[in-house]
Amino acid sequence: MAVNETNTAVKPQENTHQNTLTFEDQVIKKIAGIAANEIKGILSMSGGVMSGLTDRFRSTEDITKGINAEVGEKQVALDLKVIVEYGKNVPAIFSETVHNVKKSVHDMTGLEVVEVNMHVEDVMTRSEFEAKTDRDKEQESKRDLE
């Protein structure tokens, strides 16, 4: 007697859900800000007039100040506004900043940084910058007392 056997493989159900990992723009800006501030020759990130006004109402400096980020699913483009220390080699600072920012963002997020634009908004000596920072803190303290 011949037995008719059929082999039917059981197909696992297709997973209709796809896992995703996304980042807020603010997270990418923070990583880039920390990485840029590690570079010798960058005194500060500069956010322009509006940032200066909002900083007066904060007690701590915003690390994302002066950074704009366009974050896609796999790529990032960044614009940085900086204050550079007088007497330093700005192209070398730019090159080191690009390398450090790209590495930090990629290492932490897996995203590819496809563009880094750095705009130098001011050049100051370290002592000039520290004096300005101290003056700004004094003015903020006086406003807090009023």
How would you explain this protein's 3D organization?
Strand 2 (67-71) and strand 3 form a beta hairpin. Strands 1, 2, 3 and 4 form a 4-stranded mixed sheet that branches. Helix 1 (25-37) packs across helix 3 (90-109). It contains 4 helices and 4 strands. The chain has helices at 25-37, 48-55, 90-109, 126-145; strands at 42-45, 67-71, 75-85, 112-124. It is α+β, with helices and mostly antiparallel strands and 146 residues long. The radius of gyration is 25 Å and the shape is flat.
Which regions have little confidence, pLDDT < 50, spanning 5+ residues?
49-59
- Overall geometry comes to flat
Tell me the quaternary state.
single chain
Structural class: alpha+beta
**Roughly how much helix do the residues carry, as a percent range?**
40-55%
Strand % is 15-25%
The overall pLDDT average reads 84
Q: Could you state the order of secondary-structure elements as H and E?
A: HEHEEHEH
Count of extended strands: 4
Strand and helix map with partners:
Elements: H1 25-37, E1 42-45, H2 48-55, E2 67-71, E3 75-85, H3 90-109, E4 112-124, H4 126-145
Question: Which descriptors would you attach to this protein?
Answer:
alpha+beta, four-stranded mixed sheet, flat
Summarize it:
The chain is built from four helices and four strands. It is α+β, with helices and mostly antiparallel strands. A hairpin with a 3-residue loop joins strand 2 and strand 3.
